[in-house]
Specification:
By secondary structure, this protein is mainly beta. Helix content is about 5%, strand content about 35%. The protein has 1 helix and 10 strands; from the N terminus they run βββαβββββββ. A hairpin with a 6-residue loop joins β7 and β8. About 30% of the residues are buried.
Length: about 140
């Protein structure tokens, strides 16, 4: 991985740059992520909020309930509908969750954990070598 790293949506209307190292990389298996992606999980790279910036376009947001507090803020492209960000809380958050599929070079994504495995589908094949958490990992709810 080279810093800064870049990415964007499918149509190119949204572009971003991140000038910081990832805080963590994970796969979220919650029902919310399943429904919003139409898949078994969301692969995400959490980065410091101050290191992330949009270089083209403006995200639109959809908010979903969070069991930790308030609501999750899900950013997507208003043109093509690609989900670009997610996982951060509605109020000011210290991090931004970038969906790994939006990275210009997603090959460096290596998940460090699976979260919300309590919602994982039986056909979802998880890597047995990485830690699993029924919901949030222990330190993530203390923001």
């Amino acid at each position: 991985m080279k810093i800064p790293f870049t990415g964007g949506c499918a149509c190119g209307a949204i572009r971003y740059e991140c000038a910081g190292e990832p805080i963590m990389m994970l796969k979220c298996h919650c029902r919310d992520c399943q429904q919003l992606t139409g898949s078994a999980f969301v692969p995400a790279v959490l980065v410091p909020a101050e290191a992330f910036r949009l270089t083209r376009g403006q995200l639109r947001y959809h908010f979903t309930p969070s069991i930790a507090r308030g609501k999750h803020k899900r950013g997507f492209c208003p043109e093509c509908g690609s989900r670009v960000t997610g996982g951060e809380f509605e109020e000011q958050s210290q991090f931004v969750g970038i969906l790994a599929g939006t990275l210009d070079d997603p090959s460096w994504f290596h998940p460090q954990m699976d979260i919300f495995v309590s919602d994982a589908q039986p056909w979802d094949q998880m890597d047995p070598a990485i830690p699993k958490f029924d919901q949030y990992p222990p330190s993530s709810t203390k923001e």
